[in-house]
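Lab manual, section 2.4: Encoding a predicted structure.

Procedure: take the sequence of the chain (466 residues), apply the prediction step described in section 2.3, and record the output as structure tokens. A sample record is shown.
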Amino acid sequence: MSACFYRQTPMHFDSQLLTKYSKPGPRYTSYPTAPYFSTEFDKQAWLEEIAATQHQNRDLSLYVHIPFCDTLCHYCGCNMVATRNYQRATAYLDYLFREIDRMAQLTTPGRLVRQIHWGGGTPTYLHPDDIRRLFAHLKSHFSIAEDAEIGCEVDPRELSAAHVTALVESGFNRLSLGVQELDDKVQQAVNRVQSEALIREVYGWMRQAGVASINMDLMVGLPYQTVAGFSGTLDRVIDMAPDRLAVFSYAHVPWLKKHQTLIVEESLPDLATRIALQQLLLERLGQAGYVYIGMDHYAKPDDELVKAQRNKTLYRNFQGYTTHKNCDILAFGVSAISQTEEVYVQNAKNLNHYQEQIDLDGLATERGLRISAEDRLRRDAILKLMCDLELDGNAFGEQWQIDFNSHFADALKQLEPLQQDGLIERNSHMLRVTDTGRLFLRNIAMCFDAYLDQDTGNTPRYSRTL
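Recorded output:
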């Protein structure tokens, strides 16, 4: 293992480096990425894949999407519906239950669920009794491992201690608290106002309830954000000592998310400020003892993510980094994405269309993709670099029965300037991401992406990598 996993010394780089590599690129929660999913992969194709993969008896990861929020955060990039009409959530649960029923009928009994995650929107938009009801429905249809990782995203606004109690009593042991930023001016600009006192109160409820792991989500690149203001946010967050931190860069994609036009572009931090914010993060969180996993994720040294990276068992999927590599994902709800070893499949992204499809036959498949052997090979290379931070060409070539250097001649050529800039080290058979290179994992992975050259037109599909 490279010593870089636990090195806490600050990374130093100049602004020219970040300027050079700040370009549109995927986040690689899948490969090929979601823009290449097609409606040609339809509901019948998904049914055939389910039938063909049941005999493999792989473990399961379950994802549930709750799209509702009380208010619209202007930066939001999720599939969500802002409403205060709770009857919409009540009706949606009925559809979710029917989708769960249908998928359970198609799934071999006894396949063990190792991981459950609820995302949104805001899962805790649901009332406490409905949280219990939904989890009980999952539990009655699937075999959940006693040591399963069960997580939920939490918005502190409109949350009560009863919500936390309902989550813990249902079995949730990992909660992710949406903080984003504690500066008042920034909060007003993005329409997400929540005081430090509220965050501390909710965090206290979670600790008192015995939640095993608490993550906090932060965001950089928001309107009116400054180094001084965000430094104050970090002071207060570090004082609370969450187990993990996910610090995302705001993706300004108004061509995809129309509500982001509510953000005045002139209020967004300039490149120099974004660079300074990244430097601040790396220095302050490193000094506080957090290990930088990569791709915006930080964790305490004894965290399972850090251990998995050290043991080369870390994986990446639509929920981000995970320690559960060999699981099929069954995803429920509007826009939710399921995954087997060779297939990605996404539910309808429009709420009304999702419900119409469930009414038909209990499934809401809208599009998907069966990946090729070449896709699988390149996905494996990308994931090794993003998770292990290194790639042994000899071992990889033996595993996939290829000559690594000739097969990836295109990627190795593209990596040359990154190597010259100190983002990656390479010898005859080994590629290693440097400490500085961890900030540029998306750029490194893009060198192995055979689809990027196929993009046409002037409309960017992805947010900038930095």
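Check your result against the sample. The domain at 1-31+373-466 is CATH 1.10.10.920 (Arc Repressor Mutant, subunit A).
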